[in-house]
Structure formats: structure tokens, C-alpha cells
Amino acid sequence: MDKKFSRLEALIGKENLDKLKSKKVIVFGVGGVGGFVIESLVRSGLEDITIVDNDVVDESNINRQIIATSDSLGKSKVEIMKERAISINTNAQITAIQKFYLPENEMEFDLSKYDYVIDCVDTVSAKLSIICRSKEANVPVISALGAGNKLDPTKLKVSDISKTEYDPLAKVIRRELRKRNIKDVKVVYSSESPINIVVDENEYGRHSPASAIFVPACMGILIAKTVIDDLINF
Fold it and tell me: Which residues is 189 bridged to in the sheet?
């Protein structure tokens, strides 16, 4: 028995642990949610993980992102996450892609070769593209919805996107999916009513949502748990 995962194996069994080690997943976005997704997957025995993000660690990330420290400022998020993942499990095969997923470059990603697609990006166009292309490839996909301007992690839910509430992002995504006749999209969202806070524009001219660690971290862990359950039919 691999001692690193002996306590997990006691919970789910050797057959399921071996199954997880053989699965291949891709995570788009290594931020407040995505970082905790990857952390949880690696600590649950998954070894073949592709991570995609073009961002670097900023000081404003320190309050909520697992890879953000004073030592990682200015460094590539995917490279820091890769290093961290391999330090957790030396058997991990982490493919780090320093790139933002956009509709313009979607064909650079062959989603059909993965067992699960995990969407933790924060732009509507990218989310729609990831969901649509995963459906076309007949690969399970799960999408993280809004974690900003919220504080209560007990309000997190796993649901079909058609049943979400109190999530402005979900409303937009639902409308666009209906136009494309796409149904049955699994998401993790917060049913907490957003706290109305205005934050100064960032360097891209966008208003950044207020945030704390509680909701994005728990959302990431819940996404990882859902993916693991689906992969081993637990």
C-alpha cells in the first residue's frame, strides 16, 4: 500500500484508488477555485492532470489562492501549481500550459482525450466554449460559477445549471446554452445572495469582485469531490 494514500484507500478501496490514478483530467483556470481543485485532485491520487492558465501570481491573490505567497509573486500560476503538485505526489504527471483558453484558440485543445473537463475560468465566452466542446466530445464537464462577493461556504451546491439561483453568471450562461440547445450541465454554485460591493477597476478595466478564501476554496474542494465521485461511480 502506498502510505501517502493509505487513509484514502481505506475509505474508497484499492480498486477505486487505482482507477483514479489511471484517469486523465484537464483544469482550466488556476485561481481561487482552480488551485483548490488541483490540490484536492492530487491529494486524492490523480496523477495525470493538465492545467491551463496564462496568469501570474499577484499580491491581491494572497487572501484566497493556495499558490499565492510572498515568494510566488510575479511567477507563473501553472508552474507554481505544477511544482506544488509534484511535491505532494512525485508520481504526478502535470502538464502545465501557459495560456488563456479562449474561443479563438479552442481548437488547440483536444478535449476528447480527457476523462473529465473542469472549468474554473471567469469569462463567459471561454466557459461557453469549454462546455460546448466538452459536450461535442462526449466528455463529462463541470463548471465553477460565481464565488465573488460571497462569504458563506455552506450555501454551495452541486446542481444542473438550470436549477441555479442568486448567480448572475449562471443566468447569462443558461441563456446562451439554451440558444445552443445544450442541456444537462453540471455546475457548482453558491445560493447565497451576492453582497453588493464596488471594487476599484483592475488593470484590465474590469471591476474585480470582493472575495475571501471561504467560498472559492470550498467550491474547489467540492468540485474535486464531485469529479472523483463521477470518475469512480462512488
Answer: 157
Lowest mean pLDDT among 5-9, 163-167, 200-204: 200-204
81 vs 203: CA distance, rounded Å: 24
Question: pLDDT, tens digit, for every residue of 31-48?
Answer: 999 999 999 999 999 999
SS (H, E, C) 102-146: CHHHHHHCCHHHCCEEEECCCCHHHHHHHHHHHHHCCCCEEEECC
- Residue 123's CB is within 10 A of a number of other CB atoms, namely 15
Q: Under 8 Å CB-to-CB from 123, ≥6 apart: which residues?
A: none
Burial class (CB in 10 A: 0-12, 13-18, 19+), 110: exposed
pTM, to two decimals: 0.95
Model confidence at 165, pLDDT cuts 50, 70, 90, reads confident
The CATH code of the domain that includes 174 is 3.40.50.720
* 209 pLDDT above the threshold of 90: no
Number of domains in the chain: 1
Three-state DSSP class for 71?
A: coil
Q: Grid coordinates 503538485 are at which residue?
A: 85
Residue 172: all three cell numbers together: 447569462
Domain that holds residue 162: 3-232
Q: List all residues 6 or more positions away from 154 whose beta carbon is below 8 Å from its beta carbon.
A: none
pLDDT grade, residue 204 (50/70/90)? Answer: very low
